[in-house]
Amino acid sequence: MADRQLTFEIFRYNPLKPEVAPYMQTYKLAETTGMTIFVALNMIREEQDPSLMFDFVCRAAICGSCAMVINGRPRLACKTLTNTLPAKIKLFPLPVFKLVGDLAVDTGTWFRYLSEKTESWVHTSKVPDPKVQEERMDNAVANQIYEAERCIECGCCIAGCATANIRDEFLGAAGINRVARFMVDPRDERSPGEYFEIVGSEEGAFGCMGLMACDDNCPMELPLQMQLAFVRRKMAAYGLGYKEKKRIKP
Ligand code: SF4
Ligand code: SF4
Ligand code: FES
Fold first, then answer.
1. Residue 247 falls within a domain, yes or no?
2. Ligand 2 mutation target, pool 70, 151, 215, most atoms within 8 A of CB
3. Which whole number is the average pLDDT over 43-57?
4. Which ligand ends up closest to the CA of 222?
5. Ligand 2 atom at shortest distance from the alpha carbon of 111
6. In three state form, how does the secondary structure of 49-101 look?
7. What is the pTM of this model?
8. With 94 labelled, which of 144, 152, 154, 163 sits at a CA distance of 20 to 30 A?
9. Could you read off the pLDDT of 199-224 as tens digits, one per residue?
């Protein structure tokens, strides 16, 4: 793959200039060792076209802001090496999210909606007492919570999800993963009925078609398939009337 000449076809559109219709722009670039899509885009912007819009912050698969559709698949630009791709590379912005311009989208507004809709905080009636020692948590449960918390809110699972592409309010795998995170948390006192209100609908666990594009596309390799199955099982049981009287803990 050494000395390859890469051809980038990049989606261009600036919503602030609606008089210019969306188009694809071609750029050529010599591949370098260890080049990522993020590096390539920076080179294009610095050397060929300062008007090209795309997002990044961390360059290390931590912030989730550089997600885009790379040769048909939602991926992180900073984690995708060009040497894993053919010499012709097509880049589009993530669908579902509001377009900021070219490859940049606004995932922040969507994830705020997710956090508010799922009420992403521990619901407890206990009043914190700074003089009391912290409560201990079982290691296995702590690990389950940690696993769900690894989501970097990149939006790849949402962009590749058929339901999210046709249903605006659908919480997607990221939302259902968030709900699962609080369901397993022994400090959260929400009842099955309260969780059902959030996720027991077509906008939640029952809108999911189960084809698992989310699981395939998650750059953090979160166990989304398992989380979806867990939440669906709990919500279906509640919906069918098998009401666990108190809490939904595993
Ligand atoms: S399995 Fe469900 S949440 Fe995941 S991509 Fe498919 S429809 Fe979306
Ligand atoms: S679940 Fe994975 S793909 Fe979805 S937003 Fe979180 S890190 Fe990204
Ligand atoms: S720049 Fe932060 S995840 Fe890619």
1. no
2. 151
3. 97
4. 2
5. 5
6. CCCCCCCCCCCCCCCCCCEEEECCEEEEHHHCEHHHCCCEEEEECCCCCEEEE
7. 0.92
8. 144
9. 999 999 999 988 889 999 999 999 99
